[in-house]
Amino acid sequence: MTERRGAETESAACRVFTFKDPRSPQESLSVCIPEVLDPQYGMYVWPSAVVLAQYMWIHREQLRGRAVLELGAGVSLPGVVAARCGADVILSDDANKPACLENCRRSCAANGLQDVSVRSLSWGEVSPDLLLLPKRDVVLGSDVFYDPEDFEDVLVTFVCLLRKNPEAQFWTTYQVRSTDWSMEALLHRWGLSCVPVPLADFDADQSELAGSTLPGSHSIQMMIVSRRTAD
Question: What are the residues facing 170 on neighbouring strands?
Fold first, then answer.
């Protein structure tokens, strides 16, 4: 079962997630994620984050040594797992949400990740912070496609990152909230393509992952977005 350790503050508690691999039963990874009792979205672990973190763990060999950026990181479960698997990770969140940025730092400290940097990055803004980011191989995003009003801003941010590495990929999980929502036109507009990743391919097709009760009954999907190539 998911453990909870003593609170760092009166309103924060550390939630432990333990990832295992049925293909390699002797290996496991435990990470501690501080959650804050606050209604802000980026202050606790969402169902999609556990699924994406599971993908990180199952593909840990592929992550080792790669340059990774997590968008809208919040409590940063996927990014923390990627860093623990040997990736060079940068965590980012909205410049207007200092509490979420502090949560990124808190998660790094709880897991002894001194080399992970935290950056202010607002989706859709071609800011100096975005332009100065070093080349990234993989971009992570769990439930960044929460509000249709943000869909294009998230994709624009990824397209900007493609300028430094046209081969970069965007690994993202999201909760299905409406069958009417679609990104097909936006992907076409920005020269992108996406490939769905079945959850069964990385042992995430279950209601409880990493010793937690997440993702529960929520319908989660994963896709990998990349630059569209000529047919």
Answer: 139, 225
